[in-house]
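User: I want to check something. If I give you two sequences, will you return the structure for each one separately, not as a complex?

Assistant: Yes, each is folded on its own. Here is the first sequence with its structure:
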Amino acid sequence: QEPDFEEQGHIHQTADQNALKEAGLDQLKLGDVVALADTDSSWNHGYLRGSVAIGVVGQGDSPRSGYGPGLTVIMTSAIGGINPVVTSGVNVKDIFGLKV
């Protein structure tokens, strides 16, 4: 069965602004490329120790229930095939040379 790409969003939400700041998530911008440790999105989104998913931020944070920050997963590996390197400021606009 082909994946339903309309259902590939990954939404995370917290009302704890201090927790967001401590994790550095209060600085996320649309288009940022992020890695999610222990997250497998091969068939559905879920916890899997040792897996990695790479996503692009496509939705900002929101106090409204069920919204924000949202990621579109662009690649995932359940078996350690992705080894992310922490690099600040990686955004699709820079990768593709877009002027915003």
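And separately, the second sequence with its own structure:
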Amino acid sequence: MPERQETRVSTSRKDWGVDVAAMAGSLVHEIKNPLSTINLSAQLLQEEWKDADTPKEQRALRRLQVMSSEVQRVERIIETFLRFTERHELSLEVKSLNEMLEDLAEFATAEAERSGVQIRLGLSVDLAPFSFDVDLVRQVFQNLVQNARQAMSPGGGELILKTDRVERDGVEYAIGEVIDTGPGIEADKLERVFELYYSTREGGTGYGLAISRRIIEEHGGFIEVQSVKGKGSQFSVYLPLERKET
């Protein structure tokens, strides 16, 4: 990965304090009830006016259809926010990150090759199994791999999955890296890639990276991203080899 003209963003948040998930759940419940009522009323009115024949009635029907569509969009946004704030109960097992990434690469190869993307592995033999939630961490890497593949479509490129063992501030981490040779991310956009609802890709949902960061932080780790415009991006996931009891 080139080092010059590099932009790097590191994420680490531990200041949630209050139980955001409980507050969000209560708020979502209070918002969804009136939204459901509005949506149901709009649908009933659409049914009544489905045979509208005058221009005025047809305009009213179209407005009701827009109303229903917008209410459903707000409901999806709320559901995404709820998933983001939800605290995961980690199911910790001593597993091999190398083996997990090997399985993921095998699973992703067929679709990647259809996009002209070649997957390479660079897994460290020094990285022993350690304790993490396999399903949640796999979800994180699946999202990163999918993002990398989409960034390189339709022109294709190379996607590299690497692991290593590193020390940061006296803490031993397993590091898993997803590196692509795509177009890279502009510096002003890179600062926002972990924001909820923000996406650098047209049609992107904007919550995959936000939820991924949340999952890694729940493990006591963090994610870094480096990017060189026109040369590619590198997402580095740091997971502590030993968890501290809190």
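Because they were folded independently, the notes below concern the second chain alone. The first strand starts at residue 7 and ends at 11. DSSP finds six helices and eight strands in the chain.
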